[in-house]
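Q: What structure does this chain adopt?
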Amino acid sequence: MNRKPVRTWVAGLGALVLVLCASPARAGHYTWTTSGPEPGRIFQILVYAQDASRLYVRAGILGSTMYRSTDGGSTWEFGGTWPAAILVADPTNPDVLYTISYTASGPSIVKTADGGVSWQPANSGLPGNIANPFALAPSSPSTLYALSGSPPSVYRSDDGAATWSLVGPAPGSGYFLVVDAFDSETLYLANGSTLWVSHDGGVQWNPSGAGLPADSSRYAPDPRTPGTVWAFGGGGGVYKSVDSGATFSPANVGIETQGVLDVAFDGSNALRLYAAGGGSQSPIGPGGLFLSENGGASWAPVDLGISSDTVLSVAVDPSNASRVLAGATQLSRGRLMITETAGASWQRSDHGLSGYYDYVVAPHPSDPETAFGFSSARFFSTGDGGEEWSQVGETQFVVDQIVFDPTDPMVLYGEYTGYSDPSYYGGVYKSVDGGATWNDSSSGLTNGNGRGLAIGASDSNVLLASNTDGIFLSTNGAGSWDPVLTGFGRAVAVDPADAQILYAAVEPDGGAPTLQRSPDGGATWDPPSGAPAAIIPDMALRPDDPSTVYAVAGADVYKSIDRGLTFVPASTGLPPFDSGFFIYRIALDPSAAGTLYVGGIAAPIYRSTDAAGHWQPLPGRLPFSFGFTDLSVAADGRRIYASGDNGVAVFERSFLDVPDGDPFWSAVDAAAMNGITAGCGQDNFCPEAINSRAQVSVFLLRAKNGAAFLPPPATGSVFGDVPASAFAASWIEELAAEGISAGCGGGNFCPNAALSRAEGAVMVLKALHGSDFNPPPATGTVFADVPADAFAASWIEELAAEGISAGCGGGNFCPDASLTRAQAAALLAHAFQLS
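A:
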């Protein structure tokens, strides 16, 4: 009989997760959470009469990220990201939202019924890609309209987007659609400079909007007064209609030249409304928040308490008109301002609203709580793992690479890019005071766009930089630079033990991309054997092992174990390039010799714990819409940082109720990192909670087959007490199909019953070795409370023989005790050698 190698294990260890679809963690506990350093612009705000504590905003550089708050705006959490233009909300149910998701197959409507935790397609009946205009009827929230097809036609749903049916052709393509606040059959469609109105649900359309300027593009039916419609979106303030859009007249005294971007209504006063001003074009001037208290006859600016370039969005609490929210901007950074006093005083409420583009994130080399990042050209630091960020310094141009002097962390170098008409511009900054001030250190560099920066660990005076003109070397701490290779530079690296050994990826003029190695400080260069002839955007070397070198190209990782002389592919488990996967960054875990991460565009982060022997995806996807720029790991390995178009994202390896000192930490961490569990909610694991048989069926199959495994749909015909609609039904039936469990007897599975430790022993070993596995006969001498004739005695003793379990302590196994979540995690982590 073949046995697994014996693995040591502390007695009584174990723990597994309970909840399959836990609510998103706020602090990045085994999921990616946006962190900072600065809020992005706030394009849309949703407030609910039913729950004043529930808020949503659509924010970011392009407004493609949703954030939610459950405490009235004091804190925010990431709620999903799409290249989407709008959130369509059910005003009666804060959990129901719609948006357009852009995928490789085109844009389509998706719906959430749980506040953004999960999203489902909502396209049944639509002929193809959905055009951007779609809208919900406020007076009948299950009714929605959409434009779809080419040429576009109007489609309608009366069941909350479960199904759609054709209404008729649309008058042109349209780019803004809204439904009347009182009548679900009245629709307003903006098409170029023409407003079209339908009073029969989109069957017939009539050109309307007499009196409107040509640049009006957005419309807001007044929810307080039937027939009143407000038009805006151009550069001439606001226009008002009192005849359902047939005619409009100016309502813009005080905002005649403002480009109004949003309006909001005081539900307690039919004459009071707000306008979000995006600025004026003639004459050029700033925007702001404006208030009318006479039904739009005149407007006055509102003092938000901050200097503001524009206000992009505004909302009034429908249950409390004194509470107003405004999405302002300062130097392109978002500021969510809230007043509880009808404007008498305002406070910022954007903690956690990340979203401004961050190009680089660099953990402190020795302090695991400290990290740094550049938000455009502003340098920020955090001392608490990304919970709070503060600005340290500022540069002239955008910095997208940071390296620390290994002998003095107060010395930093940053490679920058900028734009100096008429050509791109790049160089290197140096700081000797921890980033408070930065001095240009580019003497000898050409002004090509920067592409890579590296420093010597054994000699911190040696730096290697690449730009679009080639590879450059400094041997005096960036005092001066000399060219060492020509072409289009990419990744660079310096041997950590010998600063004479250099690596550089370059694309020679007119030649194929190549990796070059220099053994003599850049005097001569040669291509290593087996190196990819492809663009190499990043490389990594372990400071404690100069013989091992990693390079990434396309969808592959390449590894050298002879100090860069030869390379071989090391990509087992990574998706193929033709799936859209592209690796952009590689990062080493400073605390674990064989652990490294790679990240790319439109994919999860992948992790290897065996020095690139094989790869597995981390749970969750990066919360970036368009751009992923950097990846790094904290000094203790407990946090992974990524940066991109939604700022910095943090993945924290911990649950609040399983601290590092807990004996179950490693098992729980292994289960979570391998996607077997997401915790029990609120950033907790609930290690002492009991597992049901249904829950364990999911965990077992995920441990055996991988986190991405999904069983076939359930039939409901396998067990008498497991209908097809039951929780984990498909997993339970798969457990039977694989011969891992035949149920609890009498044709039943007993899905809600607790699983005993003895039953767990049988299921784990069958999952590990196959349904035909039979352990040797029991001796009755391994555990004091497991005699040879006890139920599952041979399975329990085999569990000990394989080093999977040492019992519950005191020489016992506690076979009849219920298996806790902690114990289940340990069983699976050790049985399947998860790390």
